[in-house]
Amino acid sequence: MLKANTTNPICHSINVKKVFDWISHSSTINLKVPIFIKQKVRVRPEQSSGDFFIDYKKQKSVLLWENSSCLHITGTITITNYSKDKGEINVFINENCLFSIKKNYSRSVTVDGIQSIYLTSNSKHNCSGRFVLKLNKKIKTLEYPKNYFEKPEEIECFFTDRYGKLIDSYSKEAIKCKEIRKALGRESYKVMLANGDLVSIQKIRLKQEGYFCIKFKDNNCCTEPIPFLSEETLLLFAPANTKIHSKIEKVHFHTAVVPNIKNRKECTSHFEIYVSISLKQSIEVTKDNEILLVKGKLIV
Fold first, then answer.
1. Is 95's pLDDT higher than 90?
2. How far apart (Å, rounded) are the C-alpha atoms in residues 91 and 101?
3. Contacts within 8 Å (CB) and 24+ apart, 228-233
4. So what's the pLDDT on residue 264?
5. What is the pLDDT of residue 79?
6. Of 166, 161, 270, 143, nearest in space to 218 by CA
7. Long-range pairs of 219-223 with CB within 8 A, sequence gap ≥ 24
8. Alpha-carbon separation of residue 107 from 74, 80, 135, 180 (angstroms)
9. Nearest 10 degrees: Cα torsion 231, 233, 234, 237
10. What DSSP assignment string belongs to 116-133?
């Protein structure tokens, strides 16, 4: 809006948006994303059998089988009591007594998640018999393309919203940039210019956040939206009542893969993708409705 200045007809008042400061700023957001490998389960049956003997004088348990791996095992256990004298055999599975067997009797039971099988007897006679174990071992195989590690270009990253919808990298919705303000306002610092003048500049804290997805090109597999958040501090000439505006000029994803990270306790495996988001932003400090005086003739 242009208005004539009645006190000085040569000057005119213009209502404009004034730019107080402007910089082209480069920054990097680093993230580490674990990707769990798809696992296929195969069942491998195994069978073992044998005779056992319990010496009542030693009063010790007889271990028939123990799971020394982290595999999940189910199976059927058959115990037969062939003792010559009277005496019951107690069958313990995973340290719990499931049943007892009298002389000349046999019994079978199917158990899920077997860890150990051992026998005891409270008899004052020796006990003997035979066992048959039919076990099914659930083996998880880890399958993933090797070129993830050999060819990083097989991995693609792109910005999305929180629901996974694709967003243009250069739109305002791709990375939301917001100033973090304190209740007392921006902190000010005195800085001396090259000509010796002292000027006051302000400390600006910016928060950048958004979502992105990782896509594996060879099998067209895509991750869920991954959130990111970064904060950085800039020194700008930003007096009170000014606003901070940010616009992305360039953006690029860099990826690197680190394979074979194992969790022995859970028997799972995954690899990690190191993601760096390189940004080049145009950051402006502006204020609306500033009145400027300009000289000139108003031609109607």
1. no
2. 8
3. 228/29, 228/31, 228/277, 230/27, 230/29, 231/180, 231/205, 231/206, 231/207, 232/27, 232/205, 232/206, 232/208, 233/203, 233/204, 233/205, 233/206
4. 45
5. 93
6. 143
7. 219/145, 222/164, 223/33, 223/35
8. 17, 7, 16, 71
9. 110
10. EEEEE---SS-EEEEEEE
Q: Is the pLDDT of residue 266 over 70?
A: no
Instruction: Give pLDDT, residue 300.
Output: 59
Which structure tokens are listed for 43?
């069942």
Q: What is the dihedral of CA 227, 230, 236, 240, to 10 degrees?
A: 60
pLDDT for 9: 59
CB 24 within 8 A of CB 280: yes
Q: What is the pTM of this model?
A: 0.55
pLDDT category of residue 67 using cuts at 50, 70 and 90: confident
